[in-house]
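FORM 12-B: Structure-to-Sequence Request
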């Protein structure tokens, strides 16, 4: 037996050499081999010294005191035969341990035999480091001289990877399979901690603004709101479920968002301002920046405004309703950035319309840090050339990259591929083609004289050495991006990869408003629309009051919605709208515009009834919390800010979901498997 700090501990507790009686340390492929059932392992199941401080807490102010730390043992760094440094880490930080292995401290030599990542408790004295050895603040100023230690649980010597190894980052699938180890990495642990901090800021800010946090149901009825839903079979009510005389299985649907419950809360009059940090679910095809289950900051408010009376054309003016929602969100975002990033944001964020965003940047969520803009050059063409586009309802757009102004993008522009964009062409201007570059462009097929070319060059300020990207499209934009918008993003990403371009460090927040209320250009909604109009946002979004007459007259493509998106550095982090509070208008949208069947409309009967019972004007927004956190944590993937995320394909390699269910269980729910 060994005596450590007054504790009698068996020598076997520290002896990790292979034993014929134990497979724990000598089985090299334990993770893939048959598990050995042991009635008693090597983890300590007895009292141990109580922790006095965390590993990120100690400072020079603690010098001289006796402390007990608990955490994970990291790799040893030997200074001499009798002295070693060991980092010990917990969720709060890392402290350097000093181990002196003189004769009197012979028992401490067992620390060198422990597997890396074992959990231990140490007792020792806090010392201030020598001046030349100090690093930064806090624990970088001190070290703890170890007097004794207790092994709490030894780590396996053949772990799939070592979380503390910062030099080797194993592939993502392996880290996903062992997410409990991956989360031990400092980067991910810091992300989770920051997520908790931001959650607290959100709750405090909204509570101070008079919002009530209300939980809404997760088990609802399937409704045709736009995205595919996850369905949950239920045995509840099976005895009474009949369709055409036959029993039929019943299903709940997991909510795409709490849209209907939160509107009903406001309609009830019980809640004036609602918020929830809500779990949402969408059964979408795998994408890099999406998860089948995600979190959103969900808000709804009663008595929001319905626009302004005067028709102001300034692009920086909010011409729709929902000013109150805008103010709350800008205040919330300012608080988050001030407390987390120590950045003071402007009182109000820039506002542009959907049409302006598509015209200048080719995207409904533009990154305004990129110093490349699209321009409509149709008005600069000769009358006969202009007419050929106007007759078709088209325009000719250009991105002009000038060596004198856009040098950061020159190399990327030269190397950028665009074969997947059939409507895009590139012209490199030289003295030899200065007066015929547009005529030589076969995809545009225009005939201009030398004089007309010279006039066009003068208007556009085209000179030798410029690169001109051209594309023609419909004058009325639709969808989320144009060909030149996608090219603009591609050039900037290529320039960034090559080190020629670095985006501005300051966050660029932007409101995009006045979206088309209805669309036929959203492939994600086509499976439900089947050729019909679908809602750009959702079917409860109100039209701009100026366009109500056009909607009732059947000019659906001219109707703008009171829909607003919040964009940060080219990423949509939130979207919301003023809602329809007129039951007759909502019924008209369901029946005449979206052309829902009676069965589809019946899913919204409760909402229509609530609107008929004196529902107030109301509106709200939802911020994508995962995307917001990815930006704050400066990581390109939202999986790095979610404790237990799914893969890009929507699977969970740790919990091995989704998984098959045996037929006996399925039969209890009235579900019978079939071959696809």
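FORM 12-B RESPONSE
SEQUENCE OUT:
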């Amino acid at each position: 037996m060994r005596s450590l700090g007054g504790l009698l501990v068996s020598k076997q507790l520290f002896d990790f050499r292979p034993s014929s009686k134990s497979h724990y340390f000598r089985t090299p492929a334990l993770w893939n081999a048959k598990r050995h059932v042991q009635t008693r392992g090597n983890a300590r199941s007895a009292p141990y010294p109580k922790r006095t401080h965390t590993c990120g807490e100690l400072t020079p102010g603690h010098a001289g005191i006796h402390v007990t730390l608990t955490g994970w043992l990291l790799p040893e760094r030997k200074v001499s035969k009798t002295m070693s440094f060991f980092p010990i880490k917990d969720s709060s930080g890392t402290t350097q341990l000093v181990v002196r292995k003189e004769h009197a401290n012979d028992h401490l030599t067992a620390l060198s035999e422990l597997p890396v990542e074992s959990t231990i408790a140490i007792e020792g004295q806090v010392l201030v480091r020598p001046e030349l050895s100090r690093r930064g603040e806090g624990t970088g100023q001190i070290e703890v001289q170890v007097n004794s230690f207790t092994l709490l649980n030894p780590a396996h010597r053949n772990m799939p990877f070592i979380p503390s190894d910062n030099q080797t980052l194993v592939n993502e699938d392996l880290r996903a399979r062992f997410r409990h180890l991956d989360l031990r990495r400092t980067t991910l642990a810091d992300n989770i901690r920051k997520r908790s901090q931001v959650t607290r800021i959100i709750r405090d800010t909204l509570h101070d603004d008079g919002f009530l946090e209300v939980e809404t149901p997760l088990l609802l009825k399937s409704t045709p709101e736009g995205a595919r839903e996850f369905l949950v079979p239920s045995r509840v009510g099976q005895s009474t479920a009949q369709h055409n005389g036959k029993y039929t299985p019943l299903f709940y649907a997991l909510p795409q968002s709490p849209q209907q419950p939160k509107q009903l809360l406001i309609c009830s009059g019980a809640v004036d301002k609602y918020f929830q940090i809500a779990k949402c679910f969408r059964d979408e095809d795998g994408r890099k920046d999406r998860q089948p289950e995600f979190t959103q900051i969900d808000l709804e408010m009663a008595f929001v405004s319905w626009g302004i009376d005067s028709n102001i054309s300034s692009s920086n003016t909010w011409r729709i309703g929902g000013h109150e929602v805008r103010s709350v969100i800008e205040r919330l975002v300012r608080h988050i950035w001030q407390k987390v990033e120590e950045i003071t944001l402007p009182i109000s964020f820039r506002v542009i319309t959907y049409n302006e965003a598509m015209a200048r940047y080719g995207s409904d969520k533009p990154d305004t840090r990129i110093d490349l803009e699209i321009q409509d050059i149709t008005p600069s063409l000769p009358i006969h050339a202009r007419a050929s586009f106007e007759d078709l309802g088209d325009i000719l757009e250009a991105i002009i990259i000038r060596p004198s102004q856009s040098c950061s993008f020159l190399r990327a522009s030269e190397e950028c591929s665009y074969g997947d964009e059939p409507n895009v062409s590139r012209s490199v201007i030289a003295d030899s083609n200065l007066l015929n570059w547009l005529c030589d462009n076969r995809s545009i097929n225009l005939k201009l004289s030398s004089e007309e070319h010279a006039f066009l060059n003068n208007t556009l300020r085209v000179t030798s050495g410029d690169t001109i990207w051209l594309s023609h499209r419909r004058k009325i934009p639709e969808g989320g991006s144009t060909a030149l918008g996608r090219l603009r993003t591609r050039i900037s990403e290529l320039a960034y990869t090559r080190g020629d371009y670095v985006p501005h460090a300051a966050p660029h927040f932007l409101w995009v408003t006045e979206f088309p209320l209805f669309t036929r250009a959203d492939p994600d909604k086509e499976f439900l629309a089947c050729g019909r109009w679908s809602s750009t946002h959702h079917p409860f979004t109100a039209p701009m009051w100026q366009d109500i007459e056009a909607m009732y007259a059947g000019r659906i493509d001219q109707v703008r919605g009171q829909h607003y998106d919040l964009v940060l550095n080219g990423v949509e982090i939130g979207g919301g709208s003023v809602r329809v509070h007129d039951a007759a208008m909502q019924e008209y949208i369901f029946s005449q515009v979206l052309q829902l069947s009676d069965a589809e409309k019946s899913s919204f009967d409760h909402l229509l009834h609530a609107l008929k019972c004196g529902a107030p004007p109301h509106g709200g927004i939802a911020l994508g919390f995962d995307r917001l956190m990815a930006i704050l944590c400066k990581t390109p993937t939202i999986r790095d800010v979610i404790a237990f995320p799914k893969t890009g394909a929507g699977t969970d390699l740790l919990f091995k979901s989704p998984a098959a269910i045996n037929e006996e269980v399925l039969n209890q729910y009235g579900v019978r498997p079939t071959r696809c």
